[in-house]
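Hi P.,

Sorry for the delay on this. The queue was packed all week, but I finally got your sequence through. Input first:
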Amino acid sequence: MNFLTMDFGGTLAKYSVMDEGLNVILRDEAPAPTTKPVDYYDFVAEIFKEAQNSGRVEGIALSMPGVIDDQAGILRGSGAYRMLTDQCVTEEIAKRTGVPVTMENDGKCGVLAEVWKGNLADVDDGVVIILGTGIAGGIVQNRKILKGKDLSAGEFSYSIVGEEEGFECTAFFHCGVSTLLHKACLAKGIDVRKMPTYPLVSMFKVFTEQTEFSELNDDPAYAEGMNGYQFFEFLNAGDPAVEKIYRKYVFDVAVFRCSGRR
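Then the structure:
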């Protein structure tokens, strides 16, 4: 029996077809469909059709950012897929594909995976922190996932890490990969407005006042800003500006992780 698993991030949608033994039959990724609901549903239907070519798919499991009511299959808000707020996502996809669909918050999916087959398999209480576009996460206590009163337990993006005013004091700003890449764009003179995640990070003033650009800004390779692979190309080449940003990022992640022990 095969299943289609889909992890929707703010930048990429990553998906795979697995069997019951967790053997991966197909794995790929594509730009995240974060603009209109119809684009999202069309994307899932198209990937499902592709997945069927590798063997009959019996169900779909969705990992999504934001506040997720997994019992009702409804995205309650926040995250990169706000256009789906209050929609019964699982019902709509089931109509299009004809198979059962489940959905859970991405951080809580990470916890479920670690408890089932990963680093939390032999512990009763633990925390998972996922460094992505924002800071996803989840908490397990007595081997059960904590949901919280508003289904937001383990959402770490808006934890206070720095001393700046507004959102710039949050873990999202200091530890999110999206802001890491935007900072690198600023350092290299690449227009941050080209980044797919710019609408999400435009709340931060530092990203809205760019005035200097370099020849990289006109390079087709950076037509959509800088991605993670390009970031590490700069880092591995010893680029001093990118290395400085990376060192500060690692320090902030360490501070954030240690602050949770208090």
